[in-house]
Amino acid sequence: MMRFLCLLVLLPTVVVALPRVGPLDGTLGPTLPAVALPMLGGEEELPNTALPKALEAKGLLAPATLEWARIELDARGAERTQALEALTRLSLLQDAPLAAENYLQVLQAQNPTYDVPENILLAQLVAEVSTTQALTDLQTRFPTTKGSVTARWADVWRQAHTGQIRQAWGLPEATQLQQRLDEQAAVATTQYNLAVGLSMVPGLGQASLGKYGAAALELLGWLVFGWAFYSACRYRHYAYAFVFVFPWVGLWLHAPVNAAIAAEAAARLARAEAMQTWQDLRPTYIPAT
Q1: CA distances from 67 to 48, 100, 124, 125 (A)
Q2: Which structural domain range is residue 113 located in?
Q3: pLDDT tens digit sequence for 141-154
Q4: Are 81 and 135 members of one domain?
Q5: How many Cα atoms are found within 13 Å in the side-chain-facing hemisphere of 208?
Q6: For a 10 Å CB count at each end of the chain, is N or C smaller?
Q7: Whole-prediction pTM
Q8: pLDDT digits over 74-88, tens only?
Q9: Which residues contact 205 (CB under 8 A, 6 or more apart)?
Q10: Does residue 4 sit within a domain?
């Protein structure tokens, strides 16, 4: 009796299910919809920085700034730092120093040891502003940041390679560097004057600079053409004398020019070598190049 009652209860279920299952003949049945399950963990997507970079490359700074601002709101860690750096740089390019300073404050609050990259500090150079004007603005806007001092010292070092520091940017090391450059220039001037004076005899000026090979060739050429000119005049071959006199006189007149060029090249080389030994003047927090 109990079995009969169970069959009566299960009969409606079997009747409803039969049309849905279909025949068991190996053919595929209808596709069932996917069952929605609750997400136990989400996968974080990295921000897409291609769009703001493309906008900036095309010169569309305002839309690029908006895109970076949108990325900065959702990003974390290194991605947020990248977005804030881009916002700072773009703010400088759009002549918005207050906004740039705010972004820098956020960066430094996020990372107290953060050092401002030089590409941010020199961003105005991209906008075709002179180096002097850009560094002047940076000194005014960020007078205490290490990055600003780094950029100013880099400019001083570039000036030093020319032999004259015209803008010291208030760095005490620049004054000491200029004193050493002046001492180096005094030695170079003495060598220059000596080389040009000795070149009244072709080859001697080059020899005073240590260029003995060039000196020997110059002196030998001058003596050969001089002897040829003298011999032609002695035997009254004036046509030959006319031919030989030009290279003889030309070598004599050009010897001081060659000596001056060689002396200037030697001065530049000596200055570059000396600057390699002057790394003690570099501020302690700026790495040596």
Answers
A1: 10, 16, 21, 23
A2: 50-144
A3: 666 555 566 667 77
A4: yes
A5: 24
A6: N
A7: 0.50
A8: 787 778 888 888 888
A9: 194, 195, 196, 197, 198, 199, 215, 255, 256, 258, 259, 262, 263
A10: no
